[in-house]
Amino acid sequence: MLTHKMGHTNPHVPGPRHTPFFPRSHLSFLFLTNTPPLRLAYSMHLTLISILALLAAGILAGLLNAIAGGGTIVTFPTLIFLGMNGIVANATSTLALILGIFGSLWGYRHHMASTLPWLRSFLPPSILGGLLGGILLTKTPVRTFDILVPYLILFATLLFMAQSFLIRRFISGTQEIREPSPHWAAILFQFFISLYGGYFGAGIGILMLATLGMMGLHHIVEMNVLKTFLGGSINLIAALYFISKGLIDWPTALIIAAGAVPGYYLGALFSRYMPAKIVRHAVVLIGLTLTLVIFIQQIWK
Description:
The protein is mostly helical. It has one domain (26-300). It is 67% helix and 2% strand. The protein has helices at residues 48-67, 72-81, 86-96, 98-107, 116-139, 142-161, 163-170, 184-199, 204-214, 220-244, 250-270, 276-300; strands spanning 26-28, 43-45.
């Protein structure tokens, strides 16, 4: 059970799920009432099967993110299937995949200077939205969020299905990035994208690319720099808030991250030979399948 330090139960703070998808896996969520915020508040009893599943999810997520994105569509449902409640699964998945995001930024480091004017406009609403999204997640009752899980996965999957259309519609040519003009509508839209990003996050890169394209940016490299930096900032601020609230299952997050590192490396290698279109189709297939499975699981319960 999770309690406040004064001993009162908080219905909005996540507790354990009681019906794991895999019978051999079971969870024991522990709250340490006198524990500082940065210490472990959750512990997952790991079996060999669950460890292998987490490693596989991390590898696949890293590979997908390196080529076309969509890693959260793999890691988040994996944690759900292992019996973790949705809020802790979301927080843990967010933290586990941050490493790869900043690895991508290192690859874009030579293009950062040209994006600074745009970062000055879009970074503040991104940080604010990411933080508020994380706070909103922790205020959502566990049962409510668990009901939302298949819809969130379906929404993220539909974004990936629309990716090609959005790229064709809003991104073309090879113009250099231009100085931003005060466009409050785009900044406001970025805030709402960040709010969703802090709350769940899968698919925010596609939304940001569409926004930047509508703003008149057409240099895909600089757009990817902005998307990666802003997305990393949103996830980082949300993850820091989740850590402060003790919502991270650290052993699980480290196992996923350990798989994601070689996954990103493999993705960088395979991206030379495997078209991103095929990977996007695979992400959509995975997302639709997982959505259907979770819907059936909820109906069955």
